Amino acid sequence: MASHLPPKPTPQHSTATAGGMAEAEHPRPSGLMRWLLTTNHKEIGSLYLIFSLTMFFIGGIFALVVRAELFQPGLQLVRPEFFNQMTTMHGLIMVFGAIMPAFVGLANWMVPLQIGAPDMALPRLNNFSFWLLPVAFTLLLSTLLMPGGGPNFGWTFYAPLSTTYAPPSTTFFILSLHIAGISSILGAINIIATILNLRAPGMRMMDMPLFVWTWLITAFLLIAVMPVLAGVITMMLMDINFGTSFFNAAGGGDPVLFQHLFWFFGHPEVYIMILPAFGIVSAIIPTFCRKRLFGYASMVYATAAIAILSFLVWAHHMFVVGLPLVAELFFMYTTMLIAVPTGVKVFNWVATMFRGSISFEPPMLFALAFVVQFTVGGFSGLMLAISPADFQYHDTYFVVAHFHYVLVPGALFAILAGAYYWLPKWTGHYPHLRLSQWHFWLSVIGVNLTFFPMHFAGLAGMPRRIPDYALQFADFNLASSLGAILFGASQLLFVLVIIKCVRGGEKAPARAWEGAEDLEWSVPSPAPLHTFETPPEFHPHQH
Amino acid sequence: MSGGSYYVPESSKWPILASLALGLMMIGTGMVLVYGASGMPVMALGLLGVLAVMALWFRDVVIESRGGLYDDQMDRSFRWGMGWFIFSEVMFFAAFFGALFYVRTFALPWLDGEGAKGVAALLWPDFTASWPLLNPPDPSISGPRETFSPWHLPLVNTLILVSSSITLTIAHEGLKEGVRASTRFWLTVTVLLGLCFITIQGVEYYEAYAHYGITLQAGIYGATFFLLTGFHGLHVIIGTIILAVMLVRVFRGHFTADSHFGFEAAAWYWHFVDVVWIGLFLFVYVF
């Protein structure tokens, strides 16, 4: 494989110029204090990424507990009560602790570099946003040790399971989610202010790299829906502790109200976890095809269209709850509409590759796998969107297969692609090629072995969130569990790649990939602590 | 940070302390709710920590601002920041209004047997939907005895808040035109009006519990009533504190005619709180 890759640009060949050098520095705190007190977007970005990776492994261990129990029919390893806590915590940790902070970390590192800004718009607030996360997730994880155990009602925490019938630790779960929500809102405000206000002179909105565009729209979604989550968990808190009747029909409330409020947050939340992934892939594919991105403007409009539609589809998660017929139809059609802008994106990526000089460096491998596998997840989403069909699929492993395809070989692969793409900029070294390729191929095999059989198990009727199952599902589950072990273990390779890359390796020039054109490639690799202290000259090119 | 125009602050200890204090406050709150009053000291300590760090952090910002470290671009960052923060608050209240409308439009009529969802009526066949809901479906939950007339205390409070927005605008005009005496006077009036509102709301809460039977436990009417008015009242308290800080700053000679975003941000927040109240007055009290 390696021999087919084109030579990497060497420092001598690099035409990039240093965009900014560190000035003589003020004395800064050293050691631990440096990381606790930092206001630097690169350091905070690294903190986010390290935090996210840590949470990824914790959530991954929970997933492996689940898969180990499901390895064969019957109850082997854990009690059902603990199994429920594992599925719940796996979902919560991965969504709020791994995927979202990873994208925020990438935004912290790359958005200022891509728009030629000296830092984030509000650097101290940025530090606050990060340090809320370890506090929130320490509190969340501690609920596992509390009397009655941790959250056991699924990551969607439907009332009344999460109110009337919930363990006492639910109050702490709610409060920890409040902290994580504050972090998200403040982080999103910061990103919007940075993008709208700190672009290099001459960079118009339609000159921004797509990662910046997708993050701008993601930040808008975050600010719009995280407060709704805060609202609904506050109502839960009151139902649990103050005897209110929001989700209790006996007092005139409605458990279905919980689902409406939750999914009004929850569906845009799904796009919060995928739009930045679109941005990363839209940066990587043109670079390794040595072509401009096909249909830049349509990518921007498609992203905006997906964001707007995301507010109009939430009840497709609730088709079987007993919605009026008109609601079933409305939400079915709006959901299907989302396939249109998403299709625009996929076709644009493919068109970008058409007649390009493609090479298959690790970031490109992950980006290509993203396009294919995310599309698989998109198609199963279309199947689920058909309301009458969903009556069959609902709450089966088909749903589990669907959202894992968009989140793992989708969002997570895009994050990995972004990490491989920008590691040379962060560390000054290329990631180890052979190890990266092993990581990629083992991940692809592992992820598909884990999640593809779930489609069949689900269509055959295996319900989700159960620790035991009927015998006819045994083979599918065996494959899934083996795949999960393979996938989980191969992520250790990623850690190895990162450690090796930080410590040394082939030196990367400023423009680490020959087809890369955005502003981040005009600063040295590794990027000095302070970049673009004077705004760079930006020359808009024709999209 | 020589060379660049944009102010990037040096490392700061406030964010990490704020995180820890907020975490302590949340843990304390959880302890109070789950284990009882023994968690009170932790919660109080956390709250004090949050307030102290906020005061010190904003103090740093004020000092930097008065030291001339902020340029127009920084000013725009603050404006975007505050604007989007208020948008997030709008969405927070939107969730509560959405819950209110959902219950009134869908949940209660369905419980009464209306439409295709009428099977829900099998649970409590004697239930009759109405708003305000005086008789919740399950007889074990007692609803409010009666509800407030909107044309007494709520109307007074509406007039107070609307006037306070006007007095605040007059104070702002004074600041822009360099008439400090006017700013001092009208801002003081605004803060006093805020205090009046809070007091009257307190009286209404007392009335609710003592005479009207409107409690948190009084079915969905009491729940939505206290959710909406409670969080609004909390925002009025916060807004009043912010305006009081601005009043102190005005008396100390802070702000200039063309640079006073701290004041403007406080005013934005206050007008937002005012607008939310209009929605509350209409949909919680009148209709």
Automatic annotation (TrEMBL), chain A:
It comes from the Bacteria. Residues 35-539 form the Cytochrome oxidase subunit I profile domain. Residues 1-26 are annotated as: Disordered. GO terms for biological process: electron transport coupled proton transport; oxidative phosphorylation; respiratory electron transport chain. Gene3D superfamilies: Cytochrome c oxidase-like, subunit I domain. CDD domains: Cyt_c_Oxidase_I. It is a multi-pass membrane protein. Its main location: membrane. Residues 1-10 have a biased composition (Pro residues). GO terms for cellular component: plasma membrane; respiratory chain complex IV. PANTHER family: CYTOCHROME C OXIDASE SUBUNIT 1. Cytochrome c oxidase is the component of the respiratory chain that catalyzes the reduction of oxygen to water. Subunits 1-3 form the functional core of the enzyme complex. CO I is the catalytic subunit of the enzyme. Electrons originating in cytochrome c are transferred via the copper A center of subunit 2 and heme A of subunit 1 to the bimetallic center formed by heme A3 and copper B. This is Cytochrome c oxidase subunit 1. It comes from Halomonas fontilapidosi.
From TrEMBL, chain B:
GO terms for molecular function: cytochrome-c oxidase activity. SUPFAM superfamilies: Cytochrome c oxidase subunit III-like. Residues 2-287 form the Heme-copper oxidase subunit III family profile domain. It is a multi-pass membrane protein. Its EC number is 7.1.1.9. Belongs to the cytochrome c oxidase subunit 3 family. This is cytochrome-c oxidase. It comes from Halomonas fontilapidosi.
